[in-house]
């Protein structure tokens, strides 16, 4: 992944993001969070928000995706049957069309070399 901003994935930066919750990072999604929905969290970082999504959406599937292996390593402490984390590129998602009910990308598009390429991955007519 050639277009990764590495300073954003240093241990000190990842630690500073561990305070994240759905309330302070995705309040706009709260009215839409219903058990059983599936969610992709792009730029999941240390996984704190992603893990809370998994709790709220259970038994729905939640996937956290980040370009930085260090972020995924940090996030891997969160374990749930409906939760997984993976290294990946937001502009070339490894999922079929309509795989998720919701996609969350909090503070992540600015870290992409070509953010428009990631936006092209979203369903036409989606709310961004």
Short note summarizing the structure:
The chain is of the alpha/beta class.
Which descriptors apply to this entry?
4 strands, methyltransferase activity, SAM-dependent_MTases_sf, 5 helices, transferase, 128 residues, Methyltransferase family protein, methyltransferase, 4-stranded parallel beta sheet, 25% helix, alpha/beta
> Helix proportion of residues, in percent?
25-40%
The low-confidence runs, each spanning 5 or more residues with pLDDT under 50, are none
Cα-based radius of gyration, to the nearest Å = 14 Å
Number of strands: 4
Taken in chain order, the helices and strands follow as HHEHEHEEH
Q: Spatial order of the strands in the main sheet?
A: 3-2-1-4
Main sheet properties: 4 strands, parallel
What is the SS-derived class?
Answer: alpha/beta
Through-space gap between termini: 24 Å
The coarse overall form would be: globular
On the 0 to 100 scale, the average pLDDT is: 81
Q: What portion of the residues fall into strands of 2 or more residues?
A: 5-15%
Instruction: Figure out the total of helices.
Output: 5
């Amino acid at each position: 992944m050639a277009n990764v901003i590495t300073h954003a994935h240093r241990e000190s930066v990842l630690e500073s993001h561990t305070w994240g919750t759905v309330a302070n990072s995705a309040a706009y999604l709260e009215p839409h969070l219903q058990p059983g929905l599936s969610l992709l969290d792009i730029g999941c970082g240390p996984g704190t928000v992603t893990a809370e999504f998994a709790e709220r959406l259970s038994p729905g599937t939640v996937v956290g995706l980040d370009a930085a292996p260090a972020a995924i390593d940090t996030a891997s402490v969160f374990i749930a049957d409906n939760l997984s984390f993976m290294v990946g590129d937001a502009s070339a998602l490894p999922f079929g069309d309509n795989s998720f009910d919701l996609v969350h990308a909090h503070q992540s598009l600015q870290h992409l070399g070509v953010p428009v390429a990631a936006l092209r991955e979203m369903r036409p007519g989606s709310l961004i």
